[in-house]
Write a structure and sequence with these properties.
The complex is a heterodimer of chains A (263) and B (248). By secondary structure, chain A is α/β, with parallel strands linked by helices. Chain A has a domain of 146 residues: P-loop containing nucleotide triphosphate hydrolases (Rossmann fold, 3-Layer(aba) Sandwich), CATH 3.40.50.300. Chain A contains 8 helices and 10 strands. In chain A, the strands form 2 sheets. In chain A, strands 6-7-8-3-9-10 form a 6-stranded mixed β-sheet, with helices on both faces. A 4-stranded antiparallel β-sheet of chain A has the order 2-1-4-5, covered by helices on one side. In chain A, strand 9 and strand 10 form a beta hairpin. The model of chain A has no long low-confidence stretch (mean pLDDT 90). With 248 residues, chain B is mainly alpha-helical. Chain B has a single domain, classed as MetI-like fold (Orthogonal Bundle). In chain B, helix 3 runs parallel beside helix 6, helix 3 packs across helix 9 and helix 9 packs antiparallel against helix 10. Classes of the chains: A alpha/beta (263), B mainly alpha (248). The interface between A and B is medium-sized, with 27 and 20 residues.
């Protein structure tokens, strides 16, 4: 591993509960992600994978340990780390174009320059022609395309994705996965992709962290070694099928113990 | 056609009114006929009395409501974003909200006298609370992911307040202002009733005291009409501001 993209060093995190008792969401977690690596965080719900993502994003404060990026130690959100959420989080009162322009204007770009750049990214996510639509006029898949365009347009070093395709139907989901992978190939970034879908993780990622629940920690680290090209051929390959089975077996243990509330 | 169907009950209401007065079912002293009321209204307009009173009342209502909307939105936003401010203001707002503001009329008269300021203050006070509460609720309800998205795109705290929280809370704010608009009419008339030398509420009071019931009814119906028109205009304005919402 040459240059690093993200270093998670001994990070623990707990949430204060209502009764005063705190829930440990993440315990002594270490992880190093290479620059321009596509990394998936995989695990059952409640395993702290989203918590880890939000910590990297700087949205919640680091309580113990440290998170480093090439831009320095993470202490707050910043445009070097873009994020895409499951429910799109577009500004509903802005059109697609205005949504994408928003972050570009914050970078100090002039309006014409921001709009030109925004149109380029809108085209890249296949939304040309929908620039002046409001999010409420778009399907879920189209809204997520717009959200991805908005995040990519400001050109972050790191792309954080919180189950971005979780709210989409299966067909749209597949198309979006392929497109995301090809966008990433054309302009490489460090990607942290949170999902509970084994197939999605294997299809997209270079490496997968499999997390355990309560307290959340990284139990296994798997390299997919499926090559750069990811298409139907990969899905039909023996390596892909075996990998999915192997990883599913690892996740299954965690899911069972999580659903039984074991510690 | 839809409009006709929607407001048909109003026509039926006036028809019943006309029937009970013409047939003498209800004494004309208590409920004058519509044509008598209409001619009294024409007389009030011709003398300039009605327009003068309406001007006085509506400027008071507009001043009180306008100040309440501006200050209410600011207070509501700060309550939603500042814990200490919330702790300080919230219990006071909650206690005063259900209290009828007209109960303060005698007190306000002592403080501000009989001039415009007493009415404007009362209207302001009554309209302030619904605006504060709706703004606060709207601003509190803004999705965490929307705020995080804005901050990761490089927005400062103040920019998030102005460019994300305010527009996201707009549907609630507009609804609160509509409630405030109705309150402003209620407080306008009721305060002028008790403490005023002019205005629509004062006119209703003096005409009633003088036994001129047709003219009194004329002013009451005119106030209802103005209030209705203001509400419809406001609703159209609010809808135009929320064109981005899903059409339903």
């Amino acid at each position: 591993m040459s240059e690093f993209g993200i270093k998670v060093e001994g990070v623990s995190h707990s949430y204060a509960g209502r009764s005063g008792a705190s829930t440990v969401a993440l315990k002594e977690t270490n992880l190093e992600i290479a620059r321009n690596e596509f990394h998936a965080l995989l695990g059952p719900s409640g395993c702290g994978k989203s918590t880890l993502l939000y910590l990297i994003g700087g949205f919640i404060p680091v309580q113990k340990g440290a998170i480093r990026t090439p831009a320095g130690v993470v202490s707050a959100p910043g445009p070097d780390r873009g994020i895409v959420f499951q429910n799109f989080a577009l500004f509903p009162w802005k059109t697609v174009l205005e949504n994408v322009v928003y972050g570009l204007r914050k970078q100090g770009r002039s309006k014409p320059e921001a709009e030109e750049r925004a149109r380029h990214y809108i085209k890249m996510v296949q939304l040309a022609g929908f620039e002046n639509h409001f999010p409420s006029q778009l399907s879920g898949g189209m809204q997520q395309r717009a959200a991805i365009a908005r995040t990519l347009a400001v050109d972050p070093d790191i792309l954080l994705m919180d189950e971005p395709f979780g709210a989409l139907d299966a067909q749209t989901r597949r198309v979006m996965q392929e497109e995301l992978r090809s966008i990433w190939r054309n302009s490489p970034k460090t990607v942290v992709f949170v999902t509970h879908d084994v197939h999605e993780a294997v299809f997209l990622a270079d490496r997968i962290s499999i997390m355990s629940a309560r307290p959340g920690r990284i139990e296994h680290l798997v390299e997919t070694e499926l090559g750069m090209e990811r298409d139907d051929g990969v899905i039909a390959s023996k390596r892909y099928v075996e990998l999915c089975e192997r990883i599913w077996a690892l996740v299954r243990e965690q899911a069972i113990s999580a659903s039984r509330g074991e510690h | 056609m839809q409009l006709v169907i929607r407001y048909l009950p109003v026509a039926i209401f006036f028809l019943v009114w006309e029937i009970v007065t013409v047939t003498g079912l209800v004494s004309r002293q208590l409920l004058p006929g519509l044509e008598v009321i209409f001619s009294a209204f024409v007389g009030l307009v011709a003398s300039g009395e009605f327009l003068f009173s309406a001007y006085k009342s509506l400027t008071r209502a507009a001043a009180g409501l306008g100040a309440a909307i501006v200050l209410g939105i600011l207070i509501g936003l700060f309550m939603a974003t500042n814990r200490i401010f919330l702790w300080l203001i919230n219990p006071i707002v909650r206690i005063f909200y259900p209290m009828p503001k007209s109960a303060l009329i005698p007190l306000v008269m002592i403080w501000f006298g009989l001039g415009d300021s007493s009415k404007v203050f009362l209207i302001f006070l009554g309209c302030l609370l619904p605006v504060i509460i709706s703004t606060y609720n709207g601003a509190r309800g803004v999705g965490q992911v929307l705020l995080w998205s804005a901050s990761s795109l490089g927005a400062s705290r103040f920019e998030i307040l102005r460019e994300v929280i305010l527009p996201a809370a707009l549907p609630d704010i507009l609804a609160g202002c509509r409630t405030a608009l109705a309150f402003s009419f209620i407080l306008m008339v009721s305060s002028e009733f008790v403490i005023a030398k002019d205005g629509l509420g004062f006119l209703i009071g003096t005409l009633g005291d003088g036994g001129n019931y047709p003219a009194m009814f004329a002013v009451i119906l005119a106030v209802a009409g103005i209030g209705f028109a203001a509400d419809r205009l406001y609703a159209a304005f609010a809808a135009s501001r929320l064109h981005w919402k899903e059409q339903s």
